[in-house]
Design a protein that fits this description.
- There is one protein chain.
- It contains 8 helices and no strands.
- The protein is mainly α and 172 residues long.
- It has 2 domains: 97 residues, Rna Polymerase Sigma Factor, Chain: A (Orthogonal Bundle), CATH 1.10.1740; 73 residues, Winged helix-like DNA-binding domain superfamily/Winged helix DNA-binding domain (Arc Repressor Mutant, subunit A).
Length: 172
């Protein structure tokens, strides 16, 4: 955390190598978040690139160095939201070759979990994605989404129950 804080300080002063170091540390989490939010690898890469460019051009405005991660994920969240608006009427494509997350046993289960995940509402996908795929805690997600921490926990719980119902083949 201290190393990241020092890199942020340098990046705020215009040090592009420091920003590159920050990007290197957070890219996988950003990509994973965008991928599971958008469901398309190309769109995820584009959203991450757009978010990084925006962050690079405005990092000097970041008030607290320790807020870097939540700040850049807020930017990514809005980039993903913009992309989703572009194809709101198009169904999400479940692409083969999406990265394994390590908790699935086989391709069939992986496909079922993805399908259940993509049937969640956008905010539910964001909360589940940020928690499970990026490791953010309820407090951090609440800050990013500007909602109450207890609301994050209850929405996550309901979303996981929805997914469990889908995976067990039960309907409401």
């Amino acid at each position: 955390m201290e190393k990241e804080k020092q890199l942020v300080k340098k990046a705020k002063k215009g040090d592009s190598e420091a920003f590159a170091g920050l990007y290197e540390e957070i890219y996988k989490d950003m990509y994973r978040f965008a991928l599971y939010t958008l469901g398309n690898p190309e769109d995820a890469k584009d959203a991450v690139s757009e978010a990084v460019l925006s962050a690079f051009s405005s990092i000097k405005n970041l008030k607290k160095e320790e807020a870097f991660r939540s700040w850049i994920f807020r930017i990514l969240f809005f980039k993903c939201k913009d992309r989703r608006r572009e194809y709101i009427d198009k169904p999400l494509e479940l692409k083969e070759g999406m990265p394994e997350t390590g908790f699935l046993e086989g391709p069939e289960e992986y496909t079922l979990v993805r399908r259940a995940f993509f049937e969640l509402e956008q905010e539910e996908r964001l909360i589940i994605g940020m928690h499970l795929f990026c490791g953010y805690k309820s407090r951090e997600i609440a800050e990013l989404l500007h909602i109450n921490e207890n609301t994050v926990r209850s929405k996550e719980s309901r979303a996981l129950k929805k997914m469990a119902v889908k995976l067990n083949g039960q309907e409401d």
